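request received
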Amino acid sequence: MNDTSTLKPGHIQGETGIWEMVIGLEIHAQISSKSKLFSGASASFGSEANRNVSLVDAAMPGMLPVINEFCVEQAVKTGLALNAKINNVSVFDRKNYFYADLPQGYQISQFTKPIVGEGEIIVDLNDGEQTIIGIERIHLEQDAGKSLHDKHPTKSYIDLNRTGVALMEIVSKPDIRSPQEAGAYVKKIRSILRYIGACDGNMEEGSLRADCNVSVRKSGEEFGTRCEIKNLNSIRFIIQAIQSEAERQVDILEEGGIIDQETRLFDTSTGETRSMRSKEDAHDYRYFPDPDLLPLEFTDSWVQNIREKLPELPDSLKKRLVKDFGITSYDASILVEEKDYVDFYQQVANGRDGKLTANWMITELFGALKKDNLSFSESPITSENFGELISLISNGTISGKIAKEVFSEMMKSKKSPSKIVKEKGLEQVSDDTEILKLIDQVISNNQDRVNEYLSGKDKLFGFFVGQVMKLSQGKANPGVVNKLLKEKLK
Amino acid sequence: MSNKDTIVDAPTVNKIARLSRLDIPEVNKENLTNDLNNILGFVAQLDEVDTSNVEPLASVTGHKLPLRNDDVNDGNIEDLVLKNAPEKSSGFFVVPKVIE
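response:
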């Protein structure tokens, strides 16, 4: 048997050799608009059934769609953020299919002329490596309604509130080579969308979901036949589904079978994919330009205006954090993952020790939030209080060890660190006379060891430091203790 | 109409009838196939025009697509929306069960 422990992510060891995965993603991102793409009904989530439906959304005869300028702007903004070509002329097409939650009988989408063309993004992998993933296109389209199948034994209930809500479909090139890369790609797209405010990126509520195209091949061979796994709404599921689908394909190919190009669903309870539509029902969407809509056109200066308003994006922000605050590139990449993190970090680190801030934020704050199962926005610690804590450490008021105690109290009580330090009497003692008193006490209690030390057993020095610290209940300044002990024990 | 080459045959008619969920009586199928071939043959005359250097046309008016502001000014009319529904319940449309 071959040794599988050295397999790279995205590689599968088969009987006939190593297989490599080829993956492309279609990300559906709900645009953060107030109203729908082609109607003035609300795009908000969680209303009463059919409350947010206009006669346009319900596809009543004679109704005409009028496009939402904000949605067009968000697609252009996203294209600019992904270094992509902006198409000043694009066309809306009808994608025809029958389904109960699609009253028009077609989805308005963009087929031959999307609003955004080719681009690329840099994706950060776990090992600190980076890879570039190509973007094929971004187009605007309508979301469908919602069918509820569990309200009645023989009937389906239809709610059209989602019908017509604006989506962007971001299509990658088949450049992704492992489930981990796919996860990192989605994370990066989500982060960029949140920075520019085009989409809230909330995968639990479905505002960001992905379809994954997966095939396998032997290294250097042509692409194999692909299968599409629909509607994955978490990064963990994306990673699991791709891995399991690729393994399924390898099993079939190694037994001499062929892969049917088909749409599959990921079953989260079994961790496997299963076929979704039978092949004889293969869809022919009969795309054609929507006669209700003229081509969408805008000028270079309109695009330029949007470009000038783009906020600083994660990649350039990361470089700036490394330069301005002297933190590592790895720490910076964690901090820029979410706009909330980096805003918080900058508020705290400005005028303070940037490295210390990064360490405390990533290790202590993120660690404590994870332990308490809290999101960053639910954090009980404000940037003011966190900054105060960093200052107390930097100026020697408290030691790093005491700071951890103060920090866990901050997590519990939301009190300011200076208040906690005062209430508990935790100030670091740096005063020479006070510390000398402690040192004298330790020396007189341990005369034997002092003699041993003086006769050459240097290693005992650490023991004396420890005893003094213990006697001070951790409050003595370790630097001062070291200095004074050395003088005293000469 | 001329006897153009057959564009659709009987199996194709069966297939699109099924995809369209149309139940077409067997006796009508031959006529329908002929009709479809006549219609498609008529339209196929357009193939004689050389369009290799012509951009596909999405509009003939020369107007630009008007844009609207992102304002919520419609909706809250569920009674109207549901008015013609053959069956409804607690604000939902109710249809025969559709599960793929």
